[in-house]
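hiii, so i know i said id send this last week but things got crazy w the move. better late than never?? heres the sequnce for the chain we talked about at the cafe, plus the structure i predicted for it. fair warning i was half asleep when i ran it
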Amino acid sequence: MAVSQKPDNVAAVMKVFAILEGLAEQRDIGLSELSQRAFTSKSTAYRFLQTMKELGYVSQDEESEKYSLTLKLFELGASALGNVDLVRLADAEMRKLSETTHEAIHLGALDEDRSHIVYLHKYDSQFNLCMQSRIGRRSPVYSTAMGKTLLAWMPADQARDVLSSVDFVARTVHTLTSVEAVMQELPEIRDEGVAEDREEAELGVRCLAVPVFDRFGQAIAALSLSFPVVRYDAEKRAEYIRLLHEAGKHVSEGLGYHDYRFGLMTKVT
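okay and structure toks below
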């Protein structure tokens, strides 16, 4: 249906968005071209543009009298992305991982002091022999795959600062119990794009984790897959990593990040 056939208020909204789209496609654009894009008169387009100027969405060059967008629309879009519910967004990917692997799937993020991982969401294993966890539980960053993942995507000096404030406790005989021991793993984690808990938090349980990035490329959360060592082998590990990377990519894209390269992770310099 043409714009002219719409009710007046709907037609007006469509004209405004046609003007905005024209401004988005071209940095500086004149009134005549914008009125043509919106299929409206110059006087109507001018009134819309003046209102958008008053609201701060459009600016006008004094000499050329051409119009351009301000950053206010970008700020609106950024706010919308910031309000995306991370748990809701991750849920679909976590459900697919659960249905494919039947193992325990977790979403976690750093707590206020960054020394612990907080479990935000989970899918329990469908096997009797599995990792025990609950939403809201906190676990140390140094002994969890999710914690090591988020440390790895921090600048090295920040990661060292976090670890320097931690009281290391050997939860198992495999737990890393020093700043240097954890720091030595971080470059390899970035290279492979995945962190691994090798029975460091719980005997008999291994865990793999990958980062989730926000629109600025900051690792804000991690997705993990946990399984008993009796169900572990190298071939299964490779497949789990592939599935986790795919899930992490999709969640990150939902948050506005589009440079999550499968198998080739963005590295901190």
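btw Confidence is low (pLDDT under 50) at residues 264-269. thought thatd interest u
miss u guys!!
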